[in-house]
Structures are given as structure tokens and as C-alpha cells.
What does this fold into?
Amino acid sequence: MTSRPLLVVLCLPSLIAIACADPVHDAAVEALGGEQPGVRKGPDHRPGQPCLTCHGGEGPASFQMAFGGTVYAHASGDAPVQDATVIVADAKGRTFQTTTNCAGNFWVPAKAFEPVFPATAAVMASGFSAAMTSIINRDGSCSSCHTAEQTQSSPGRVWIYPAGKDATPAHCVQMGDE
Amino acid sequence: MIGVRLVRDGARQPRWRSAALLVTRGLACCLLIACSEDRGDGRGFAGGEVGVIPPCPTRQLECPEAGAPSYEKDVLPILESRCIGCHSDGGVAPANRWFTSEASVCALQTTIRKRLSDCSMPPPPLPRVTDEEFATISCWARAAALAKAKNEPCPP
It folds into this structure.
């Protein structure tokens, strides 16, 4: 006869796997694909992707964000805007300001700001500004709605410059640059 | 630690059973750690402070009797830095709210003044216009309204 502790020991690895697994979340992470060539995991990686898929508390990233996204120069093209100011405001009128990096990425650490939804956001860069005309209901990943393509359910990317105004070229340090 | 024998109901337990209990507890700890949240600071974060959007102030408008602000010299630079990013072709504002010319701004002067007064424009959380910018645009808009009442063109 097998004793109870032995059974628990045998079953625990399976319990751990079951307890921590969320197939829907795992599929969402999987759908993001691999890292871009030459870009290591960190602040510059995966521009334009929904940050909170991994950084929303369900992992696999340990660092959690309240908001995260990417600012582009124009609605089309991949030119990011560095040093753009991003302001988010929550339902209580509390604001948090952050800045984009060389990849155009920005984020608001969950540790620093716990917003009450609905929230809204605005972007400013080089004398140009744009504010959301709708509200952020729940998802802190800008790219969940601001997809690369403009569709009936997406206003397209977060972009800031009018036609004719080019972004200052930004270069992120990549693997092999150091 | 493995060699420690646990005693229950006065009976000695076999050594393997103690070891099994220890492994069980260790694995339970691993489960807790694996599923617990880790809130780091994030590398390269360049964040700012948390503030609160203040209530919209009530502004008293005092315009000079003569010499209304100039559209080209005074109003247009403010519109360019505060408004035209959205209120132009390619911006998020609808086409009937584009500030493409003095005439289009003149036609919208009542709305512009109202939106600035109630702080609905620039839309939060963009910074509000300053008192000076508010006075410049509002005084020009007031002069534009007076001109319109007289069937005259907007002040240049």
C-alpha cells in the first residue's frame, strides 16, 4: 500500500504545473513569437507588442507594468520616437509621466502607479502633441488596441508627427555593439 | 535534516517517511515562490512623478479696449504648439474642426473660447494653456466675434 506522503510527493510536480498554467495566457505569450534578431530581452525589446501580455502579472516576465506601449513617428513605417513624453491619467485624475526610449518603448511600473480605470493618455514630442479621444477601459497594453494596422477596432499605432516631420534617428545598443 | 525523525502518537516513523514529508514541504514552498509575483523596478525606467489634474480654474478675461491680439503674430504660434497637431489633416480631430486657415479658426472662435474656458481642450492629460495663452486666444476670439457681428472680417 502506498503511503499518503509518497502520493503527495509524486503528485506535487503535476499540481505545480496545473496550478501555474493558464492555457489562454500561455497561447497569448506564444503568439508573440521570439525575440527580434540582435535584440536582447529588456527595455528595447518587442516594440509594438502588447507589453502586459508578459508584464501584466501573469508572467513570464517578473517586472510588472501598469501601462506599456510604443510611440512611432507616423501611422505607417517603423520609425520610433525617442524622448517623447507620455502622460497617463486615471479616473481619479492622478497622472503619471514617463519617456520613450530608443525603441520608442515606454512603460509605467505597476509598483509606482496603480491606476483606477478608466484612464486616458497623451503623448508630446518636439512641440507636437496628441491625446486620446477615447478611454482606456482596462488593458494597460497600448498595442492591444493600437495595432500596426488601422482597422474597425483599432485606431492604428500610437504616432505623433505630421507628414513631413521625420523622427530623429534613434539607435538602440544591440548584441554585438558593445 | 533528512535524518531527523518525526514522532507522532508516540510512534517512530520510518526514515523515508520523514524525508518524504520534508520533500513535500520543500515542493510546497517552491509552488508558492513559483506562483508569487515579483515586482522589480524595470531597467532603464525614466519615469516621472504622480500628480493630480487640478480643477478647472475660473479665469477672468480682461481684454484691452484697443489693439486686439494679432492672429499671425500672437494666436497662430499658440495654435501651432497646442492645437494643430490634432486639429489638422492627419490629426485625430474631425475635418470640421481643422485649424487650416484664419477663416477656419474664426468660424470656430466661439467653440474655441468655450473649450479653453472649461478646460476640455487641450484634452487632459495634455497640459492646459497658460493664463497668458488663454487671454491671447480669448481676446482675439472676442474681437473676432465683434467683427462678425458687424459683418467685418476677423482681425488679422
Observations:
- The two ends of chain B are 89 Å apart (CA to CA).
